[in-house]
């Protein structure tokens, strides 16, 4: 991992951590309480930015995978797998915070409504991405198969976005990404975008660190000693 890459990841991580701390202060002490749902609505400022960053991450996976299949550039494969792990982390945050919100709002931890089901499907698709990478004895074939999964999985993202508009759903409709503009109060909108900025910085910090680790793993594999790098024997590390 180069010095510049390491320092960039560290600076982004520090900025992201500072932003996350600011976000939590705003959630608990600054932003007003939503009139209809009350205090539980504050999960929104964690839940929604995490979802947006997860979608961005899987979009990067798809773009890098297309490039890898076309150009056979190992750097693009490293970018794809690094983004996929970040996407899995933030999708897990979405799937953990959603039931906390749903238990109060709907009276149940989980319901098989379209947006929740499609989001869970997204998580499993990218879990499959990592399983496929290590499912063949030929690493290059595993990378190609995984790239296809990464591209196909990204097609689920627009379905998640439009699911509340085209299907009967308990999930609330969009309040920010609307043709007529956001319907949130200014304080709520500011808090939301602070969360989005903080999580984006944390994602790219993770991405750069993971990219460096993947580069190190590839170098060790070429030397025939991958086991000497802890946690880099493949899969979701």
Largest sheet: none
What proportion strand?
under 5%
Q: Which structural class do the helices and strands define?
A: mainly alpha
Radius of gyration, whole Å? 19 Å
Mean pLDDT across all amino acids: 85
> What is the tally of beta strands?
0
The coarse overall form would be: globular
The first-to-last residue Cα distance is 17 Å
- How many helices? 7
Point out poorly predicted stretches: 226-234
DSSP helix fraction: over 70%
* Domain module count: 1
Descriptive labels:
single chain; 237 residues; mainly alpha; 73% helix
Question: Care to describe what's here?
Answer:
This protein is mostly helical and 237 residues long. It has one domain. 73% of the residues lie in helices and 0% in strands. The longest helix has 38 residues. The radius of gyration is 19 Å and the shape is globular.
Task: Describe the SSE topology.
Layout: H1 3-29, H2 44-71, H3 74-105, H4 114-133, H5 139-154, H6 156-166, H7 186-223
Helix pairs in contact: 1-7, 2-3, 2-5, 2-7, 3-4, 3-7, 4-5, 4-6
